[in-house]
Specification:
The protein is mainly alpha-helical. The protein has helices at residues 20-36, 38-81, 85-90, 98-104, 109-125, 128-137, 143-159, 163-175, 183-196, 200-213, 220-233; strands at 2-7, 10-15. It has a two-stranded antiparallel ribbon. It is extended and about 90 Å long.
Length: 234
């Protein structure tokens, strides 16, 4: 059934929804398309269903892993804070250490944090290569702890005498969301490395940065003295 309407002398066809021939033709084309491509469509549908199920399972598994890992890590943190660093790393036979948590629960946030604790433990033990290794495996969006991780990597490189790498990581710490709490501390570390390398101008730049921009920091007074000392040399 076709209706005809007139608009300012023109004829315009308006197709009624009751037109059974048009509906039948449209449905027939859809059926042909589905039959022709049913394997592809079934494959796409199956992929979407499996992907959704895998995603849901992964999220559940990760959440469950993290809950267990956090409970297991409690004793390791206690050992770390008590300076029982070997037990903190390796456990005590009944409780997991940081290294076991990293291995057993590697997808969890707790395992990620265990990397930071493991790096800190190795740094205190004087195993600087392992300290660097675990710090580099750690990642955080927290602006304080991530910058601190970079700074501690820099400390480990200083202990190894690898000053160029130390400079890279102190700069990372300085540039990672600068703040009034810790950035001046990282600048001071960088200045001392430059002084060790006898790069007086770059060391002076660091001291000037602290004096000009971090007047409330604990590093201000020593930076003021070091600035005057280097300016006297120049």
């Amino acid at each position: 059934m076709v209706k005809i309407k007139k608009y300012k002398g023109q004829k315009k066809e308006v197709f009624s929804i009751e037109n059974s021939e048009i509906i039948s033709e449209t449905l027939s084309k859809s059926e042909v398309f589905i039959n022709k491509n049913k394997n592809i469509l079934f494959g796409i549908l199956s992929f979407l269903v499996v992907s959704f199920l895998l995603f849901s399972f992964f999220n559940y598994f990760k959440t469950n892993q993290n809950s267990i890992a956090q409970e297991e890590m409690f004793q390791a943190i206690y050992y770390f804070e008590s300076d029982s660093l070997v037990k903190a790393l390796n456990g005590d036979g009944n409780n997991y250490g940081f290294l076991e948590i990293i291995d057993e629960f590697n997808l969890s946030e707790a395992a990620n944090l265990a990397n930071f604790y493991a790096g800190s433990s190795y740094l205190k033990l004087g195993d600087y290569n392992n300290a660097i290794r675990y710090f580099k495996d750690f990642s955080s969006s927290d602006y304080l702890i991530q910058a601190r991780s970079y700074s501690l990597i820099g400390d480990a490189y200083v202990e190894l005498g690898e000053y160029d790498d130390a400079i890279i990581y102190f700069k990372k710490a300085i540039n990672y969301q600068p703040n009034q709490f810790f950035t001046s501390h990282y600048l001071l570390k960088l200045a001392l490395v430059y002084e060790e390398l006898n790069d007086i101008n770059l060391a002076l730049d660091c001291y000037i940065d602290i004096v000009d921009n971090y007047k409330e920091s604990v590093e201000y007074q020593i930076s003021l003295k070091n600035k005057a000392r280097l300016e006297g040399k120049i």
